[in-house]
Amino acid sequence: MRRKILIEKRDNRIRTYFCEDGEIVEIHSTAASGNREDRHRLGDIYIGRVSNIVPNIGAAFIEIEKGINCYYDMKDAAHAIFTHKSGKKALCIGDELVVQISREAVKSKAPTVTGNLSFTGRYAVLTHGNTRIGVSSKIPKAMREEFKKEFASLENDAYGIIIRTNAKDAPLKDIKKEIALLQEEYTGLVRMAATRTCFSCLKSALPSYIADLKNVYMEGMESIIVGDKDLYTRIHLYFQAELPEYTDLLELYDNPEFPLDKLYSTQTILDRALNERAWLKTGGYLIIQPTEALTVIDVNSGKAAAKARAKADIEAGTLKVNLEAAREAARQIRLRNLSGIILVDFINLSEETSTTKLLSEFRHCLSRDPIQTTLVDMTALGLVEVTRKKVRKPLYEEEKN
User: Which of 252-256, 339-343, 391-395 is modeled with the greatest confidence?
Assistant: First the structure.
């Protein structure tokens, strides 16, 4: 697969476009400066104070800044790193402890924090609270077993190590070196926490546009094209320090007469990704409507409405529209970064074999998503249930801020 990344700065926003085989498959957007997004980013680590405990939902609320109360799962208290303890219970009001933002604020909801800290490298993740030695399921089985044997000696009671997909093509010495650096960062932060006051920020996450580059899978990457000189300088400095082997991939595109958005039609693609309607080549279309609780995708036959009189022809035509809709729905879910519960209302099919073929195709398309996405089932009402892990805000939320 041929990969390319485009990064542009327009309208006081930095947008990153991920391309695969010439098609934009993901869009990430963040404020360039002077925005509340600059605070409380995913991955930031603070010393927080327990302000309230709600036993019936198994949750506590932890203040990481005056007036900023974050949701905290009480199960995390078993592995908490306390800097001040107010009582003998596992978690007490007034306790001060180290927490990491695991989900950014969305609309009226405050951030979610966890006591299970993660320190992410290019090839591995160190996880406080989860002590297993794990390997990405996307790495071939034989190689997974080799990695597990190689790093079995690292097992301990404080933290675990997860080997990432990127490690598949990396020299073993580079993976070991990175793990040693992550261990050093972890122990250093724990020591520092003991000397800091409540509400201290112990670690600030990288700007999201740089974190995207750190975490992206580089196999097949042809170029990373940056359409802004200042951005290019910042990214180039980061690559020289952290990813020197990929510095040659960076390209500055600096043509004010024909900017990046004109060259690759990024504005057009962004506008379409923010529109509730997505057209299909058959003439049908999807209506994509996010709500507070879930996202609904409705498949409409549109101009592709079957004109054939024969029942078999109608079924074949409907299946054709549904199969294209399944492929496009999977593409739009990733492009728009939709997450949580997603319900897809396909056009009704009469034959069970048609339904089986549709679900099989949809499941296959969803499996290509690098973020964990699961086709759960089809309900009695014919709605297809999908869940997708929430990693960051959906595109429409990012663009609003």
Answer: 339-343
Q: Which residue, among 23, 7, 24, has the nearest Cα to 15 in the 3D structure?
A: 7
Whether the predicted pLDDT of 391 surpasses 90 = no
Separation CA 61–CA 52 (nearest Å): 5
For residue 60, pLDDT beyond 70: yes
Beta bridge partners of 50: 62
State the average pLDDT for the chain: 91
Per-residue pLDDT, 308 = 45
Q: What is the pLDDT of residues 188-207, one digit of tens each?
A: 999 999 999 999 999 998 88
Residue tagged 């990693």 (tokens): 391
Distance CA(373)–CA(216), nearest Å, equals: 18
Chain centre to alpha carbon of residue 106: 14
Q: Look at residues 201, 200, 211, 123 and name the one whose alpha carbon lies nearest to residue 164.
A: 123
Q: Is the dihedral of CA 48, 106, 209, 180 positive or negative?
A: positive
Q: Which of the four pLDDT bands, split at 50, 70 and 90, describes residue 108?
A: low
The DSSP element (H or E) to which 100 belongs, if any, is: strand 96-103
Backbone angles phi, psi at 181, to 5 degrees: -70, -40
Alpha-carbon span 113 to 63, nearest angstrom: 10
Residue 393: the pLDDT is 86
pTM, 2 dp: 0.83
Chain centroid offset of residue 25 CA: 13
Which tokens in the block code for residue 70? 């974050």
**CA 48 from centroid of its chain's CA atoms:** 25
**What tokens appear for 170 in the block?**
């990396």
CA distance 150 to 148: 6
281 contacts 275 by C-beta, under 8 angstroms: no
Beta bridge partners of 342: 295, 386
Strands (E), 121-260: 124-128, 133-135, 159-163, 201-203, 221-226, 250-252
Q: Are 373 and 338 in contact (CB under 8 A)?
A: no
**What is the C-alpha separation between 116 and 77, in angstroms, rounded?**
9
Looking at per-residue confidence, does 312 or 276 come out higher? Answer: 276
Residue that is written with structure tokens 């054939």 in the block: 308
